[in-house]
């Protein structure tokens, strides 16, 4: 696929992936604020054609985030998470 002019050699799908990741950043930041957790959220590089989003927490906030997820996960979601962990 040809590179998009003026986009640093990125192809159209790469540019789209970066745009999607960039558009998700404020939504993720808002979701974190709803949980009363604050971290730095920013778009990252492309990995396998997917735009990455980085969330940086201090270690105490990371533990708080994990506790929040466990508290709000349904039993089915929690069971699925345990199955996934056992596979890896």
- The rounded Rg comes to 17 Å
Q: Overall 3D geometry?
A: globular
Uncertain runs: 1-5
The major beta sheet can be summarized as: 2 strands, antiparallel
Q: What is the overall number of helices?
A: 3
Key terms:
88 residues, alpha+beta, two-stranded antiparallel ribbon, 2 strands, 57% helix, globular, disordered N terminus
Overview of this protein structure:
The protein is α+β, with helices and mostly antiparallel strands. It contains three helices and two strands. It has helices at residues 12-34, 59-72, 75-87, and strands spanning 40-47, 50-56. A two-stranded antiparallel sheet has the order 1-2. A hairpin with a 2-residue loop joins strand 1 and strand 2 (50-56). The longest helix has 23 residues, at 12-34. The chain is globular. The model is unreliable at 1-5 (pLDDT under 50).
Secondary structure layout plus pairing:
Layout: H1 12-34, E1 40-47, E2 50-56, H2 59-72, H3 75-87
Antiparallel strand pairs: 1-2
